[in-house]
Amino acid sequence: MKMLTKFESKSSRAKGVAFHPTRPWVLVALHLSIIQLWDYRMGTLIDRFEDHEGPVRCVNFHPTQPLFVSGSDDYSIKVWSLTSRKCIFTLTGHLDYLRNVSFHHDLPWILSCSDDQTIRIWNWQNRQEIACLTGHNHYVLLAQFHPSEDLIVSASLDLTVRVWDISGLRKKHSAPQSQQHSFEDQMQRRQLPQQDIFGNVNAVVKYVLEGHDKGVNWAAFHPTLPLIVSAADDRLVKLWRMSDTKAWEVDTCRGHTGNVICAVFHPHQDLILSVSDDKTIRVWDLNKRTPVKQFKRENDRFWMIANHPTMNLFATCHDSGLMVFKLERERPAHTLFQNKLYYVNGEKQLQSFDTSRDETSMPMLSMKKIGKAWSFMKTLSYNSAENSMLVTHGDGDNGMYALLTLPKQITGALEPSDIRLGEANFACFISRNRFVTFVKSSKVLYVKDMNNSVTKSIQLDLAITDVLNANGGRVILVRNHSVTLYDVQQKKELNTMSANKIKYAVWSPDGNYLALLSKHTVTIATKDLQHVTSLHETIRVKSAAWDESGVLLYSTLNHIKYGLLNGDNGIIKTLKDTLYIVKILGNKVYCLNRQGQAEVVVIDPTEYRFKRSLVNKNFAEVLRIIKNSNLVGQNIIAYIQKKGYSEIALQFVQDPETRFELALECGDLAIAETEAEKLDSKKTWKKLADEALLQGNVEVVERAFQRLQLFDKLSFLYLSKGDSERLNKMTVIAEAQLNPSSVLQNTIYTNDVDARINALAKGGLVSLAYTLAVTTGRNEIAEELLQAGKPEDLNLGVTGAPLQVPQPVGSVAENWPLKPSTLTSFESAFKSGNLDDFVEDSKIESHTESGSTSVPTAAFNDLALDDESEQEDAGWELDEDDLGIDDELDDVEADFVEADGAIVETESGLEGEITYWLRNNKTAAGCAAAGAFEQAASLLNKQVGVVNFAPLRKRFMEVYSSNKLYLPGVDGLPAMKSYIRKRDDEDSSDSFVPFIPGFEEMDEKLSSAFKFFRGNNLPEAISVFRDIIYTITLLSVSEDEKEAKCEDILTLCREYILGLSIELERRSVETTDVKRNLELAAYFTRAKLQNTHRVNALQVAMLQSFKNKNYSSASYFAGELLNILPTGPKAEQAKKIRARSDTIASDAIEIDFDPYADFDICCASFTPIYKGEEEVLEALVGAKYKVEYKGLVCRITNITCVGVPASGLRIKNEC
């Protein structure tokens, strides 16, 4: 047995302690007249209460109300409110120190005892004393209500323990139930009840327990049994039993060497705990009355021990403060194998739980005889091959393991017949006939066989503190500040990662990730111990398990939480009691509780699935969750905004203020203005105006300024637009508002001189009005003003010609020209409701088939396969009519003449650069860049058998023109010509090579092709894929990685063109030719497409087969689809079709397609080429044909000849 300290506080001497019945709180009464309220889970001081005038000896919580009571040496009892954190009232009446106070579990009573030798009962509602129990003739150190009956137990220094019957007191202070009394009640009332010396007939002594030789310090009722435990200064702990008529001593626990201060029962185990001034805590077996364990504190004397009413928690008061602890770990030993959870229940029996059926089996083995009586099972490890179980138990030097053989049939908790024992602190199976054990004291790792014989021993580092299980014959070595992955077979440390005090390791179902659990931290790493993220908790972490989607769910003392690989986490469910997670299936979390019972907790995984989909950019799942789930809350909205997806949050937020802020963030002024009208606040309109100004939307700015009545800003806005009509209206508005300053400003904007002169004159500024009239040639008005003013002040002398007033030119300005905004891919799909495209794109990473027919090259990590964009794209249209060989060349050919198939410059001054290019070049693209088209064509013919150059004309001209620069000269002189090299910092002419475009645009072209594929525009998709082939055909690269990538892309293009051509052929087949239709649909699935697109092919084949009653084929295609896409609408459809098809399992139409045969598809006839049949190859992309197509132009490339000798395409240039 082990004592696990959960919390310690340092203070002056603590005299009393009490647990809150439901919250993780503990009250501590200090000798310094202070009461402290602690949160023992967080380790924080919540509050201090300082109203007593003497040492506080006792405290207690109310079982249901937010109250607690305290007793002190100041003779008073105080009742406190946990809500207001203040003393509500004080009860006085005791004449000496208070020793103990407590609440009744049901009635509004407080029980107190004192050194005045009395026990008093108070009604805390009317704040009156209702009974005073006398009989003890010395200090009463303890008085306590029975947890369920009308009894009180008291302990005194008069050497006795007394049990009091308070049933009469209950009847006296309870409301009358009926006016009629039974005959028995009437007879009972006639009997003279027992009285105490004060005449009290409502609370009387039922038993007096005598047996201690010195004063009794404590007594306590058992929570369920008719037992009493007492502790006294005679160093003994006594156990008493009582019946309806008598009470007697059962036995005595001996072992303490000092006065026993306190003793309590364990809340749900047959144990007694006692503390003594010999500085020890002792644990006793209730049944045998023998000592189980002793824990000693060297420097502090214990004053009290209190037990939690329901949990395995205890608190002790000592001279230096408080300690909260529990006995043994409560984590049930368990192991998971497939759908079977094996665990040790509360009766120390091995049991199993079937997660597929949610059924608990009968106990299969009893483990009560394994280890000592109070030795708990720590870990289990199951061997399915031998149907054996490894069990570890004990701690430190007492650690042991047992190898058990499980019964083949479960008939009950049998005693194990074949037990092989050994010393170990850790044991687990590493293969079907081997297991490893670790002995902590010697730091040795033993490998043993099923006969328990050592086959290998490994001396480990002395710093190793523990060993944890890993996969594939490996274990994890734990040090204080690191963990190491260790291969037992090779005796080799594979990887090490820093992590502090790891206790448990949890592997993901696919074995790719590992969660390492410590006291307050969850560390997630890859299978090679590469750190991914860490999650920190203030509450202790208890367990963890992985969701099938790769999300970690872990439990703390009071929550189930989730953690994503990017470090995001959150709360899923609040727990009433601590649970240990073992497995997650869908929305079910399979757990074990502390009583050793399996529980199924139903959760809502929407939040973490939404966040995971958002982080992984799986917008299909994001849309589906938004449409099908009630996902709301500021937390989710804030998370979406934080991740930069405000347009997603905008789709399902209803609050006007939040929608307004999101719309501004997205730049959607229409929604922002709609919400601003709902809010109608100055702050909102101001924000809208500022954002609209930034976007140049003057119409929204105008409406916002009008709402804000910012007339000066409106006038300036109309001035900037050149809107004279509205400027004149603003002048009228200013006049109506009697705002001369605004009138003057508007007349300046409108250039209305007469109105301005009038405004100045009305404003008393006659001199300015006169000056303006004279300078603008208004002589009549000037004369009138001169007569009204002082001539000497207004004589300006000689003035020049009237000023010319500028006028706006052109029409009124509209909104600033901006690129028209288009809907994002998310918004388009959300509004249309079409989610299928997203489903395809989102499943590439998550679901890959191990034996998949993907392109047999390196993963396309560097390719632009992110085809999420839904924007319209013109693509690459390769209409052969537009590319006829007789069409006129571009303007760039004006300075060149064509001779013998090659283009040669007419000017000889720059021939040196071209010469270097031709000399240093080793690719056809370099020749084309230099203008040697004939030489480039010859190279392509020899390397890959190109015979049709018409489709390559566009590419030839692109390569030729992209590396030549023409700068216009001065009048009368020709343009200046220059060349663009691949590297302009080369000094040696041996390294001069031309710049060849195309590689950088490869990813964009692939994205465009995939977009056409998704849009079901198959001819355009084929056209773009062929354009990519033509780009690579005339390309030059210098790195091996780029060359390899181009080879991969050529293979990719071949497979997509083949598959799409087959599908186009199927669509053109007559409806009466059902067999050919089914064959082509089946052949489409053999094209090596990306999984996200192969789903389409499989769905076509599945639906066509099912429609035409080829159920066996439909079932096969449905299974292939589900291997790639296990969830979603398409998956649900496939499951239904497979279920229906499997009941029939036959094909109505026989087709030439064997899904399990090894064959290729002829790119011309679209028929199988089985293994062993003759075939011919095309050299550029590797397309395969039947021999009858030898010498014809390839249907995939449209430029190469099938079956001709070729050396292979060369695009790498070393220079």
From TrEMBL:
Domain COPA/B TPR, chain residue ranges per copy: 622-781
Gene Ontology terms, MF aspect: structural molecule activity
WD repeat start-end pairs: 49-90, 91-132, 133-174, 209-250, 253-294
Main subcellular localisation: cytoplasm
Pfam families the UniProt entry points to: B-prop_COPA_B_2nd (PF04053), COPI_C (PF06957), TPR_COPA_B (PF23953), WD40 (PF00400)
Domain COPA/B second beta-propeller residue range list: 347-593
Localisation: Cytoplasm; Golgi apparatus membrane
PROSITE patterns recorded: WD_REPEATS_1, WD_REPEATS_2, WD_REPEATS_REGION
Domain Coatomer alpha subunit C-terminal span(s) in chain numbering: 861-1212
Keyword tags: Cytoplasm, ER-Golgi transport, Golgi apparatus, Membrane, Protein transport, Repeat, Transport, WD repeat
Record membrane topology: Peripheral membrane protein
InterPro entries: Beta-prop_COPA/B_2nd, Coatomer_alpha_WD-assoc_reg, Coatomer_asu, Coatomer_asu_C, Coatomer_complex_subunit, Quino_amine_DH_bsu, TPR_COPA_B, WD40/YVTN_repeat-like_dom_sf
Superkingdom of origin: Eukaryota
GO cellular component assignments: COPI vesicle coat; Golgi membrane
GO BP, sorted A to Z: endoplasmic reticulum to Golgi vesicle-mediated transport; intra-Golgi vesicle-mediated transport; intracellular protein transport; retrograde vesicle-mediated transport, Golgi to endoplasmic reticulum
Subunit structure: Oligomeric complex that consists of at least the alpha, beta, beta', gamma, delta, epsilon and zeta subunits.
Task performed by this protein: The coatomer is a cytosolic protein complex that binds to dilysine motifs and reversibly associates with Golgi non-clathrin-coated vesicles, which further mediate biosynthetic protein transport from the ER, via the Golgi up to the trans Golgi network.
The protein's name: Coatomer subunit alpha
